[in-house]
Write a structure and sequence with these properties.
This protein has helices at about 10-50, 60-70, and strands at about 80-85, 90-105, 105-120. It has about 130 residues and is α+β, with helices and mostly antiparallel strands. α1 (about 10-50) runs antiparallel to α2.
């Protein structure tokens, strides 16, 4: 009775482990970028729900926005990345920023994120 061995060799296991390690390392670089983006979107959504937001001036709206980001530890959004434009009875607030993280040697992971929210009168304002 001849038995044949089945399974993975040591070299095969090391290669699979290396590939999995690279993907895990890439995830460790990319996931915080998207986490910050979702914090920006959440801050915009919460800002639009605030009572009387359409009557405030743009500088105080930016201040409220950056206070919300400070709580979420979002560090990549700078004041020059935030634009506020008057629209109808409120404002349109857009955030456009880029995050660059080093990956391996001279290879970087770059994320370009854009979010926009209408800040208008709600039923609470009237």
């Amino acid at each position: 009775m001849k038995r044949t061995q089945s399974g993975m060799t040591l070299i095969g296991f090391v290669i699979v482990l290396a590939v999995a390690g690279v993907f895990i390392y890439m995830g460790m670089k990319v996931i915080p970028m998207y986490s910050e983006y979702f914090a920006v979107k959440e801050a915009l959504k919460e800002l639009s729900k605030e009572a009387g937001i359409s009557q405030k001036d743009p500088s105080s709206i930016k201040d409220l926005f950056f206070r919300r980001l400070y709580i979420s530890y979002a560090e990549n959004v700078k004041p020059e990345n935030v634009k506020i434009a008057r629209k109808d009875a409120g404002y349109t607030m857009s955030v456009d920023y880029e995050v660059r993280r080093p990956l391996i040697a001279n290879i970087d992971v770059v994320g370009h994120f854009t979010a926009e929210q209408l800040l208008s009168r709600s039923a609470l304002d009237e």
